């Protein structure tokens, strides 16, 4: 619109100059002539028809140029809007894809975590069981060692330190001996072939008392207490 008004003003001024120059060239420069020229110029302006004139054509061309430029810009804006809409759709699709991948990865991590926790619990149970077995085995070993040591000590000690022959009864091969445990005070009845603290009763007689043998070592208990 600004271009249209500028062109209108330029054309009007040009026509005024042309009319004034033509009148000035053909008439004397007097006051009457000046008045007549002004009236003629006013009449000419009033009688000027815009439609179909060169000015109208120029104006129409400028307007068409402006309209074409506006249409071009609008088409460009439409393309930009379409591109932005496509980018928006693409972005939403990528967000959905990433969200799905993140959920799948989270599920995988949770599953792997549960497996690791189950494996850790199983290993902890196995460790506790193994420690219990080791402790029990160590206890059994210590107990066996203590028992073996006690047995060795008892076996190594003379039987007369722990037992006393009270009497021998019976006849012939049916002789039996009664001994007293000096630790507990209890009495025990022995016959040939019986065992006492690992010693086997080899023989029983009134003269030799009770004869014991172990690993080739012989000990005996007499009523008098001598070996």
Report low-confidence residues grouped into runs of 5 or more: 1-6, 21-28
Q: How many strands appear in the DSSP assignment?
A: 7
Q: Output the helix-strand order.
A: HHHHEEEEEEE
Mean pLDDT reading? 80
Spatially, the strands of the biggest sheet line up as 4-5-6-7
Principal-axis shape: rod-shaped
Strand content: 15-25%
Helix segment tally: 4
Rounded to an integer, what's the Rg over CA atoms? 69 Å
Topology readout:
Layout lengths: L1 H25 L4 H17 L6 H103 L2 H4 E7 L6 E6 L5 E4 L4 E2 L2 E7 L3 E6 L2 E5 L6
Describe the structure.
By secondary structure, the protein is α+β, with helices and mostly antiparallel strands. The relative contact order is 0.05. The chain is built from four helices and seven strands; from the N terminus they run ααααβββββββ. Helix content is about 65%, strand content about 15%. A hairpin with a 2-residue loop joins strand 4 and strand 5. Helix 1 runs antiparallel to helix 3. The N terminus is likely disordered. The strands form two sheets. Strands 4-5-6-7 form a four-stranded antiparallel sheet, with no helix packed on it. A three-stranded antiparallel sheet has the order 1-2-3.
């Amino acid at each position: 619109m600004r271009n249209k008004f500028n062109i209108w003003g330029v054309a009007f001024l040009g026509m005024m100059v042309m009319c004034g120059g033509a009148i000035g060239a053909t008439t004397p420069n007097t006051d009457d002539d000046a008045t007549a020229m002004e009236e003629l110029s006013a009449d000419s302006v009033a009688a000027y028809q815009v439609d179909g004139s060169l000015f109208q054509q120029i104006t129409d061309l400028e307007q068409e140029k402006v309209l074409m430029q506006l249409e071009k810009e609008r088409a460009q804006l439409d393309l930009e809007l379409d591109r932005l809409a496509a980018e928006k759709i693409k972005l939403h699709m990528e967000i959905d894809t990433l969200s799905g991948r993140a959920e799948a990865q989270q599920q995988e991590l949770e599953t792997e975590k549960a497996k690791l926790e189950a494996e850790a619990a199983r290993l902890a149970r196995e460790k506790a069981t193994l420690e219990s077995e080791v402790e029990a085995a160590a206890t059994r070993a210590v107990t066996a060692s203590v028992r073996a040591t006690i047995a060795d000590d008892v076996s190594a000690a003379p039987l007369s330190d722990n037992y006393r022959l009270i009497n021998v009864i019976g006849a012939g091969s049916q002789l039996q001996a009664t001994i007293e445990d000096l630790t507990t005070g209890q009495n025990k009845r022995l016959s040939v072939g019986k065992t006492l603290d690992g010693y086997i009763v080899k023989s029983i007689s009134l003269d030799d008392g009770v004869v014991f043998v172990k690993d080739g070592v012989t000990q005996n208990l007499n009523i008098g207490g001598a070996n």
